[in-house]
């Protein structure tokens, strides 16, 4: 799949070699408890996914969660989907020998196999999608899961009323700077997040998952400007 004029701005940025090269430094600085988020995700999936589970990972570019999950669960196999070829190449390099249990697929949810999968994740990704596409993507993930299979999502989600939105965007940037991110790049990131992302209130995000068909949707992660949910097909 080629990137074109209709490609979302953040996806296009992930075709920039410099952005791709420094990607792995970003999440730990901007996402509180980033490593713990992966650990919690594995625990939530393993509650219902068998030791030989097939797991769909949407937004897999870079390979950070793929590596964490594959190392923690040696019997799981994965399909990792991402629209950015350069990010998938980075994932392949990061995974090394773990690639034997991973199939990487360039594209969006429609390019993922039909499954059915035993579990799925979508970490730090759904906030890139406009609301209608977010709803459709969640429904397509649900369609690819076995009944009762767990789905874990986590992304930017905070109050969107004018004053609250501005305050939380400033806090997003302040956390990055406090964690060692370059102040100029952080300000550009704050501006891009505020301009280009279709951000929702946390309860609206949870409702997207319910509308897609997920049951028993629960918040398991709340850290500054980030939220995470688990639900079941």
Features:
single chain; 233 residues; alpha/beta; seven-stranded mixed sheet; 10 helices
Task: Put the structure in a nutshell.
This protein has helices at residues 9-13, 17-21, 26-30, 34-46, 64-72, 85-95, 131-143, 162-178, 183-196, 202-211, and strands at residues 54-58, 77-82, 102-106, 119-123, 150-156, 215-223, 226-232. It is of the alpha/beta class. The chain is globular and about 45 Å long.
Structure description:
With 233 residues, the chain is an alpha/beta fold. It has 10 helices and 7 strands. A 7-stranded mixed β-sheet has the order 3-2-1-4-5-7-6, sandwiched between helices. It starts with 8 loop residues before the first helix and ends with a strand. Residues 1-7 have low confidence and may be disordered.
Write the layout of secondary structure elements.
Blueprint: H1 9-13, H2 17-21, H3 26-30, H4 34-46, E1 54-58, H5 64-72, E2 77-82, H6 85-95, E3 102-106, E4 119-123, H7 131-143, E5 150-156, H8 162-178, H9 183-196, H10 202-211, E6 215-223, E7 226-232
Parallel strand pairs: 1-2, 1-4, 2-3, 4-5
Antiparallel strand pairs: 5-7, 6-7
Helix pairs in contact: 4-5, 8-9
Which stretches are poorly predicted, pLDDT < 50 over at least 5 residues? 1-7
The largest sheet, given as strand count, sense and whether it forms a barrel, is: 7 strands, mixed
Q: Count the beta strands.
A: 7
The whole-angstrom Rg is 17 Å
Shape: globular
Cα separation of the termini:
29 Å
Approximate strand percentage = 15-25%
**Portion of residues within helices:** 40-55%
- Kindly report the average pLDDT value: 91
Query: Going across the major beta sheet, what is the strand order?
Result: 3-2-1-4-5-7-6
Question: What's the helix count?
Answer: 10
Structural class by sheet pairing and helices: alpha/beta
Order of helices and strands: HHHHEHEHEEHEHHHEE
């Amino acid at each position: 799949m080629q990137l074109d004029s209709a490609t979302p701005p953040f996806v296009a940025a992930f075709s920039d070699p410099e952005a791709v090269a420094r990607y792995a430094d970003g999440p730990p600085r901007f996402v509180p408890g980033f490593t713990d988020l992966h650990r919690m995700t594995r625990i939530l999936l393993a509650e219902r996914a068998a030791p030989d589970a097939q797991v769909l990972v949407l937004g897999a570019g870079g390979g950070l969660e793929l590596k964490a999950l594959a190392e923690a669960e040696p019997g799981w196999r994965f399909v990792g989907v991402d629209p950015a070829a350069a990010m998938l190449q980075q994932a392949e390099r990061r995974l090394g020998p773990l690639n034997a249990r991973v199939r990487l697929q360039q594209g969006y949810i429609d390019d993922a196999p039909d499954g059915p999968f035993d579990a799925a994740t979508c970490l730090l990704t759904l906030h890139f999608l406009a609301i209608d596409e977010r709803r459709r993507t969640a429904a397509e993930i649900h369609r690819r899961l076995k009944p009762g299979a767990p789905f874990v999502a986590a992304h930017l989600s905070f109050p969107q009323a004018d004053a609250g939105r501005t305050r939380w965007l400033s806090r997003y940037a302040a956390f990055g700077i406090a964690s060692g991110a370059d102040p100029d790049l952080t300000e550009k990131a704050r501006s891009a997040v505020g301009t280009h992302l279709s951000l929702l209130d946390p309860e609206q995000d949870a409702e997207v998952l319910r509308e897609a068909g997920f049951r028993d949707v629960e918040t398991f992660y709340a850290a500054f400007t980030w939220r995470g949910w688990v639900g079941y097909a």
